[in-house]
Specification:
Elements lengths: L1 H14 L3 H12 L2 H26 L5 H21 L5 H7 L2 H13 L3 H13 L2 H29 L2 H23 L2
Helix pairs in contact: 1-7, 1-8, 2-3, 2-6, 2-8, 2-9, 3-6, 3-7, 3-8, 4-6, 4-9, 7-8
């Protein structure tokens, strides 16, 4: 139970205002909340599962710089692709790209080397109890990002799709640039 509470508390507060929470909000403004939350669950289980595994097996060794570089580049690419999507081919884009996989991949890459993933890795290395740590971190991510989903769903009702696309692209690009900036800080 100690591993669950430690992981839940640390991850929940670390996720508040984090880039992935903002990304979830932006995706929910574009897509239905159901595939967004399903993708957050799948990506969190994969990402934090990897962190727990590495934490338990390696006791805290993770190539953080490489993870942040890939995640930052992916955010910028997603932002540019979002801006590039034309209004005419909106229906074709929605059919050809699954919201679930788009959100899951973006979220997974965004969490690579992130403070929440590193917190999970550290707690797992310290506690050695993988299941309570994974359960606590996953529950915290779902609740924290669920708040982002609620806000994104509200925005969806009051902001035009074109404006949401621009805001989403800007959030992606800013998160990528912030990630690169953190590499050189």
């Amino acid at each position: 139970m100690e591993g669950f509470l430690a992981a839940f508390t640390l991850v929940f507060f670390a996720e508040m205002g984090d880039k992935t929470q903002l990304i979830v909000m932006a995706f929910t403004a574009r897509y239905s909340w159901r595939p967004v939350m399903a993708a957050v669950l799948a990506a969190t289980l994969a990402n934090h599962g990897l962190a727990v595994l590495l934490g338990v097996l390696l006791g805290g060794l993770l190539p953080e710089t490489e993870m942040r570089f890939v995640g930052s580049a992916a955010f910028i690419v997603f932002g540019l692709l979002t801006l590039r999507e034309g209004e005419d081919d909106k229906d074709e884009v929605r059919r050809s790209r699954s919201p679930f996989w788009t959100v899951a991949l973006t979220f997974f890459l965004g969490e690579m080397g992130d403070k929440t993933q590193l917190a999970v890795l550290t707690i797992a290395a310290d506690r050695g109890a993988w299941l309570p740590v994974l359960a606590g971190s996953t529950a915290a991510m779902l609740i924290a990002d669920g708040l982002g989903v609620l806000l994104g769903a509200k925005l969806r009702r009051h902001v035009s799709p074109r404006r949401m696309k621009q805001i989403s692209a800007l959030v992606f690009i800013l998160c990528g640039l912030a990630g690169f900036a953190s590499l050189f800080a």
